[in-house]
């Protein structure tokens, strides 16, 4: 006879749902504040004590933005090829396979189509966990198709960037994804369909120098690192220390390249207000 | 290793130096793999000098050596490794954008400034004619000596450079002149001011706006084509690479430092990146390669300029037949087809 009797029949929570991001029960922010992960989740992954925006991925952003977390994922099974047979410390194909196994993601971006407070929207969101959110053919192609979808159905496009830049293992191909996504955005631009680019921590390199900076509305999360060249490269090039706050979202706003900075807790409502203003 | 012409001949005494200088007239910087060629060339020159001075007939020997030289040159330059091509693309004597422009045009008026911040000396442009037809040239410019290199910022443009380029391209569109861009940069400049003035935004805007240009756009990589800094003026109906150039998302050195965590794997990185003209063409990322004279563009700049000019004329003849809307559509389609995915 069991000591405890289970009243509810069979616990059916799938593994995916069980796993919280960030892992573990408690989360410690860089400033040292400790918060329970459940509370963090209910607070759009922002620490209530110091407003620290935890780095999150597409799963969490979709959960925050889509009504009732309902959305249709486009190009769900697209994965990277290895056009150059690239090998560094390990073959690119192995790296991809390992990363897919580790992250349960197919590549560094996912596209969802759904509703935001009742308004239709296409969202492509990058995942930094997948090889530093690097942009290869899959990221470029997924964004292109998301824009195609927005064009065809005349609905706004939101791009959430979080990336170290281009994916070196796809060399020339990854460079041309900057061109490809910009080409599609030129069509969206001409068609007069709103494009909102949300830059999160970090957004650098080829991503900044293409779709991230091409929004009708360029917006960012507080404190996000946003720049073309990485801070280390700049420091090495000029041989000087960088000023405090250099390349932060606030710095980029101050220099005129952002429309506004938005706290993640207000993100959904602010996006709704903006889209609604454009609509009426 | 780079060996400087007159100082590097290894001969003692001023007299000898002067003789060498007079004899060879133009002496190029010699790359490591070019050394056997340079040595042989030097030997031939010495024999000619000897034959003249002592009045003896060495023509047979000279002829056989010259034949040997041709064979050696062909062997060397037809079997270049990727890294060797990278070295050639950075060769100190290699012609730069303005060299080609002045060589190709009868009239050329250089235009300056982005109308916002300043004139970026790393990005040049202006109106010139190719066989009587006016073209807007835009290109990155490197410097020849220390002072020029600093002035040109080693061919690394700031945001104002990209905005200057876009201003000139829009002007070309207004006056219905085709655009030719000459790409030669180790990258867009990574500096504090560059970030403050929106390096990323400047490049991104160029990418998007170049897809909308109603006039023909021809892009030619004439030296180094490093990443976004190169792409920022390289969206065109036709994209060509000179034979000994490279075009990729990162330089072999930086790739080595990031992926191998050391600067010593640049040769491997160059191989892995597949960054040469033949690689890029095979992968459908450029339209064609423009062959260089044997030994590289710097060995015969006039010849190289003629080849570039012919390619531009041929491309324009083809592009002129299309309506602007069709050209734009094809330009977009071309770049949208780039990328390999599994699904």
What would you say this structure looks like, in words?
The complex is a heterodimer of chains A (about 280) and B (about 350). Chain A has about 280 residues and is of the alpha/beta class. Chain A is built from nine helices and ten strands. Chain A has helices at about 15-20, 35-40, 60-65, 90-105, 135-155, 170-190, 230-240, 250-255, 265-280; strands at about 25-30, 35, 70-75, 80, 110-115, 120-125, 155-165, 195-205, 215-220, 260. In chain A, a hairpin with a 5-residue loop joins strand 1 (about 25-30) and strand 2. In chain B, helix 2 (about 35-55) runs antiparallel to helix 3 (about 60-75), helix 7 packs parallel to helix 9 and helix 11 packs across helix 12. Helices cover about 50% and strands about 15% of the residues of chain B. Chain B has about 350 residues and is α/β, with parallel strands linked by helices. Classes of the chains: A alpha/beta (about 280), B alpha/beta (about 350). Chains A and B meet through strand 4, helix 5, helix 6 and helix 7 of A and helix 8, helix 9, helix 10, helix 11 and helix 15 of B.
């Amino acid at each position: 006879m069991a000591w405890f009797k289970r009243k509810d029949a069979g616990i059916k929570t799938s593994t995916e749902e069980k796993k919280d991001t960030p892992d573990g029960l408690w989360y410690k922010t860089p400033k040292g504040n400790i918060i329970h992960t459940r509370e963090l989740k209910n607070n759009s992954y922002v620490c209530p004590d110091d407003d620290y925006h935890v780095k999150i991925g597409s799963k969490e952003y979709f959960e925050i933005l889509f009504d009732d977390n309902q959305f249709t994922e486009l190009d769900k099974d697209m994965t990277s090829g290895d056009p150059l047979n690239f090998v560094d410390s390990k073959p690119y194909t192995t790296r991809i396979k390992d990363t897919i196994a580790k992250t349960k993601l197919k590549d560094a971006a996912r596209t969802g189509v759904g509703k935001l407070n009742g308004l239709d929207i296409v969202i492509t969101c990058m995942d930094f966990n997948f090889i530093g959110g690097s942009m290869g053919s899959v990221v470029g192609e997924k964004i292109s198709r998301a824009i195609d979808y927005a064009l065809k159905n005349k609905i706004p496009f939101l791009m959430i960037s979080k990336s170290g830049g281009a994916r070196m293992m796809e060399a020339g191909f990854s460079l041309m994804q900057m061109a490809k996504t910009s080409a599609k955005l030129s069509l969206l631009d001409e068609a007069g369909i709103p494009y909102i680019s949300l830059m999160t921590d970090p957004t650098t390199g080829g991503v900044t120098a293409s779709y991230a900076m091409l929004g009708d509305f360029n917006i960012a999360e507080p404190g996000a690192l946003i720049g073309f060249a990485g801070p280390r490269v700049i420091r090495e090039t000029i041989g000087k220390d960088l000023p405090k706050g250099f390349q932060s979202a606030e710095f980029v706003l101050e220099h005129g390249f952002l429309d506004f900075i938005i706290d993640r807790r207000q993100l959904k409502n602010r996006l709704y207000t903006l889209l609604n203003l454009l609509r009426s | 290793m780079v060996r400087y012409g007159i100082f590097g001949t290894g001969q003692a005494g001023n007299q000898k130096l002067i003789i060498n200088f007079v004899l060879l007239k133009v002496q190029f910087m010699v790359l490591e793999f070019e050394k056997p060629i340079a040595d042989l060339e030097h030997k031939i020159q010495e024999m000619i000098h000897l034959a003249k001075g002592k009045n003896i007939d060495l023509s047979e020997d000279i002829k056989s050596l010259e034949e040997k030289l041709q064979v050696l040159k062909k062997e060397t330059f037809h079997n270049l490794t990727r890294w060797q091509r990278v070295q050639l693309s950075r060769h100190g004597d290699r012609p730069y954008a303005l060299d080609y422009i002045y060589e190709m045009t009868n009239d050329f008026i250089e235009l300056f400034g982005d109308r916002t911040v300043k004139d970026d000396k790393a990005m040049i442009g202006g109106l010139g004619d190719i066989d009587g037809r006016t073209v807007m040239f835009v290109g990155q410019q490197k410097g020849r000596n220390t002072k020029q290199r600093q002035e040109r910022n080693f061919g690394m443009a700031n945001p104002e450079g990209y905005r200057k380029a876009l201003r000139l391209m829009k002007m070309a569109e207004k006056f219905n002149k085709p655009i030719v861009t000459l790409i030669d940069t180790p990258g867009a400049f990574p500096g504090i001011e560059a970030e403050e003035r929106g390096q990323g935004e400047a490049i991104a805007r160029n990418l998007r706006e170049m897809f909308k240009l109603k006039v023909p756009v021809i892009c030619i990589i004439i030296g180094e084509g490093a990443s976004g800094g190169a792409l920022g003026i390289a969206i065109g109906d036709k994209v060509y690479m000179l034979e000994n150039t490279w075009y990729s998302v990162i330089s072999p050195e930086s790739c080595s430092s990031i992926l191998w965590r050391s600067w010593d794997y640049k040769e491997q990185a160059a191989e892995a990146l597949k960054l040469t003209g033949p690689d890029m063409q095979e992968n459908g990322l450029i339209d064609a390669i423009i062959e260089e004279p044997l030994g590289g563009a710097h060995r015969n700049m006039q010849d190289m300029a003629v080849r570039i000019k012919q390619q531009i004329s041929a491309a324009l003849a083809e592009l002129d037949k299309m309506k602007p809307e069709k050209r734009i559509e094809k330009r977009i389609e071309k770049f949208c087809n780039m990328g390999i995915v599994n699904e």
